[in-house]
Amino acid sequence: MNDNPTLLLADDDPTITNSLVPFFERSGFHMLVASNGADALEKAQVHRPDLIILDVLMPRMDGREVLRRLRRAGLQTPTILLTQVGDAVERAVALEEGADDYLNKPFESHELLARVRAVLRRSQSGQPSLSTAWRLSAHDLTIDRRARRASLNGKSLDLSPKAFAVLEYLMTHPDEVFSRERLLQLVWGWEYPTGTRTVDTRMFELRKALGDNPTEPKFIETQAGEGYCFIAPVRMLP
């Protein structure tokens, strides 16, 4: 009986699986491997891993279809998608289809490990993650991800689309620190022609709308040299 968390890694590139499997095993995980989507779906249903890492482009069934079928079957296993398309549309599609996070190829093994640990940390056994909820609240702040609206004390907030996207990602990943570069990649896209200062601009917009004092934050904390973190407790709403 293995008490270590079980990960299912589904990727048709053997160079990736051959390098990641021993890396994750050294990091304390029990590994299952699938080389195509059909095999990944079967192993996910039979073995019920603690987390699934799915490549989007795989033979016999792509990663998104595997994820859709798992969610239709009622399996809310935390899932990270691996993709080669790095833009904001990709991020939105991945999250709307039930992924807990996504990572662009190529990536560093340690970055994927950090993503895995973060997703497992915020996931409760048998419960859907915050990324699967359409409505979330923190203190007197509420966001409706379908309607792309946010309100504070029942009053609608006038946020730009990018500011809302930043808020949405931070709220679905509370207590995680995100660098400006990471937020730029996640919200604006992998090759978006702008610098990290645009992240600071949107953060200033958010704090102004939320009435959040950066020296005594209620919602978003700046960690010097690290990035931004959503510190308020987040819960799902029906």
If you had to describe this structure to a student in words, what would you say it looks like?
The protein has helices spanning 14-26, 37-47, 63-72, 88-96, 109-122, 161-172, 180-188, 197-210; strands at residues 6-10, 30-34, 51-55, 79-83, 101-104, 135-138, 141-144, 149-152, 155-156, 177-178, 220-223, 227-230, 235-237. The longest helix has 14 residues, at 109-122. The chain folds into 2 domains: 6-122, Response regulator (Rossmann fold), CATH 3.40.50.2300; 133-237, Winged helix-like DNA-binding domain superfamily/Winged helix DNA-binding domain (Arc Repressor Mutant, subunit A), CATH 1.10.10. The protein is α/β, with parallel strands linked by helices and 238 residues long. The mean pLDDT is 87. The strands form 3 sheets. The chain has a 5-stranded parallel β-sheet with strand order 2-1-3-4-5, with helices on both faces. The chain contains 8 helices and 13 strands.
